């Protein structure tokens, strides 16, 4: 037996990177499949697993080590089950575009709240700055100010600029990094820069709808030259929260934590209660209206929204 890391899963077949550098195809031991009660996938990208060679060049995953964290979403087809996108992540990068396509704030905040819940460092990459109009620039400045003020590092780049790309690459070295973003925000282009020669296909932006073409169909962990891994995820248009109740939601909004304990009622949901310190902070400009609107969207509409793909 030997340990390895799951790089990719396609149905019941897993690609596992062993400690000696080989990538082998594995199936899953039967009793591990039975343990997947609330999640659709018992082994996921990023998992440390134990594999056993049961016949020449035939490997089986016999154990999945305890995960230090993971990013999870609601299953697209099974509403009562969850799907783990990837595990054992050091940092999440959310690719944001002001236009072509436009990334809405609620999408960004859903990923940030999920990362916050599982104590994963998160960064925002504002891509396609070369396409900015004056209005786009003002929008970008406002958003960057909002997220910087609450402690999220923001990086403005054009992936056409080699110097900016070189600076961005340093953030990925020797880390396990998850890339998230709507279709068309530049994930495949960024990966092509991070891993020369991988030649990921890049999508075309629809002129009619200004949305990207969905190119990646599954999560995959890719080794980086110089050390570390990047996890490519499907182009998600809606990122549904999972495993976070509406009663605990506000604690994952960093700025709300400064005011939650000052509310008149301990059970305050920060929606329409009298004496709500969070709502007062919004009125006074201490909490961004866009973030508060994201909170209300998640609080009241979470059960109705699904993960949607192009």
Low-confidence stretches: 205-216, 303-310
- For the termini, the CA-CA separation is 41 Å
- Counted beta strands: 13
> Main β-sheet: number of strands, strand sense, barrel status?
6 strands, mixed
In short:
It contains 7 helices and 13 strands. Helices cover 23% and strands 25% of the residues.
Topology:
Elements: E1 2-10, E2 13-18, E3 23-28, H1 30-34, E4 48-55, E5 58-64, E6 70-74, E7 82-87, E8 91-97, H2 105-117, E9 121-127, H3 134-149, E10 154-156, H4 162-169, E11 176-180, H5 187-194, E12 220-223, E13 229-232, H6 277-283, H7 289-301
Parallel strand pairs: 3-5, 8-9, 8-11, 9-10, 11-13
Antiparallel strand pairs: 1-2, 1-4, 2-3, 4-5, 6-7, 12-13
Helix pairs in contact: 2-7
Distinctive features:
310 residues, alpha/beta, 6-stranded mixed beta sheet, 5-stranded mixed barrel, 13 strands, 23% helix, globular, disordered C terminus
Task: Provide structural commentary.
The protein is an alpha/beta fold. Helices cover 23% and strands 25% of the residues. The chain has seven helices and 13 strands. The strands form three sheets. A six-stranded mixed β-sheet has the order 10-9-8-11-13-12, sandwiched between helices. A five-stranded mixed β-barrel has the order 1-2-3-5-4. Strand 12 (220-223) and strand 13 (229-232) form a beta hairpin. Helix 2 (105-117) crosses helix 7 (289-301). The longest helix is centred in the middle third of the chain and has 16 residues, at 134-149. It is globular and about 70 Å long. Mean pLDDT is 85; it is low at 205-216 and 303-310.
């Amino acid at each position: 037996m030997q340990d390895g890391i799951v790089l990719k899963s396609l149905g019941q077949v897993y690609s596992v990177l062993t400690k000696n550098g080989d990538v082998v195809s594995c199936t899953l031991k039967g009793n591990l499949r039975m343990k997947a009660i609330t999640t659709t996938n018992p082994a996921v990208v990023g998992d440390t697993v134990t594999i056993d060679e049961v016949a020449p060049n035939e490997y089986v995953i016999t154990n999945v080590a305890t995960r230090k964290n993971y990013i999870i979403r609601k299953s697209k087809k099974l509403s009562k089950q969850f799907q783990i996108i990837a595990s054992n992540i050091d940092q999440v990068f959310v690719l944001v575009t002001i236009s072509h396509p436009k990334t809405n704030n609620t999408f960004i905040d859903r990923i940030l709240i999920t990362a916050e819940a599982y104590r994963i460092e998160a960064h925002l990459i504002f891509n396609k700055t070369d396409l900015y109009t004056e209005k786009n620039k003002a929008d970008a400045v406002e958003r960057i100010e909002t997220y910087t003020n609450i402690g999220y590092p923001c990086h403005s780049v054009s992936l056409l600029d080699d110097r900016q790309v070189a600076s961005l690459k340093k953030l990925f070295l020797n880390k396990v990094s998850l890339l998230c973003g709507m279709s068309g925000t530049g994930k495949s282009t960024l990966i092509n820069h991070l891993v020369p020669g991988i030649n990921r296909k890049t999508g075309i932006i629809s002129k009619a709808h200004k949305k990207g073409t969905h190119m990646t169909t599954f999560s995959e962990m890719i080794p980086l030259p110089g050390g570390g891994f990047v996890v490519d995820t499907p182009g998600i248009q809606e990122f549904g929260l999972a495993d976070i109740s509406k009663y605990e939601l506000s604690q994952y909004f960093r700025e709300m934590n400064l005011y939650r304990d000052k509310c008149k009622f301990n059970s305050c949901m920060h929606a329409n209660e009298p004496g709500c310190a969070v709502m007062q902070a919004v009125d006074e400009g201490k909490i961004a209206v866009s973030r508060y609107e994201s909170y209300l969207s998640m609080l009241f509409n979470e059960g109705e929204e699904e993960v949607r793909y192009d």
